[in-house]
Amino acid sequence: xxxxxxALLPLLRSAVQGExxxxxxxxxxxxxxxxxxxxxxxxxxKATAHEVQRLVSVGxxxxxxxxxxxxxxxxxxxxxxxxxxDLLAVTYGPVPVLSDELGGLPGIDTALxxxxxxxxxxxEPGPVPGDVDVLVVGTTPFDxxxxxxxxxxxxxxxxxxxxxxxxEYWANPNPEDTFVRAVKDRPTVPLLLSSxxxxxxxxxxxxxxxxDRPDDRSR
Length: 219
Known about the structure:
Elements: H1 15-25, E1 32-33, H2 34-41, H3 45-57, E2 62-66, E3 69-73, H4 81-90, H5 94-102, E4 108-114, H6 116-121, E5 131-138, H7 142-156, E6 159-165, H8 167-171, H9 178-185, E7 189-190, E8 210-212
Parallel strand pairs: 5-6, 6-8
Antiparallel strand pairs: 1-3, 2-3, 4-5, 4-7
Helix pairs in contact: 1-2, 1-4, 2-3, 5-7
């Protein structure tokens, strides 16, 4: 089976392997089914099951059976766990961590990572980015976004910058808006949010997030 090399962490044999390990290692209290990991990794069920089997066989993942489900978790007694968790946090960490932190917030239509980290994820060469840029399309209150960014920063060991764009403005931006055009023209990585992230958040303004709307261009 041919695999695509890991651009974010070349020490790993494949990008799928990196996505799986990051999802599991950065959520140490959770168990994942192979189907869940397949969705998080953006890979086929067959490819995901193959990588899971390899990682379980060498002790990098632990598993158990629950009926027909194979549940996977971070191993408790492997000495590689701590250093590997740190490596995964600064390379593959943004998608699972930000999906987790933003997943329960109200008012999100969509959320994505853009900027240098997204470019590296897409395979563009270069050093590991120093921060992570996130765009939220919706009406989520800024204080909730600020809190999510703070939690994500602690887990990823790097700055997390969240900008918010009103849904109607994202769909029909000002033609002169270089920010929205740049985001749409460059690589982005969507975050997998839970169904709890439904529209309905207020338009309250917080201290640290940024908003891009036709009626509020100064933020």
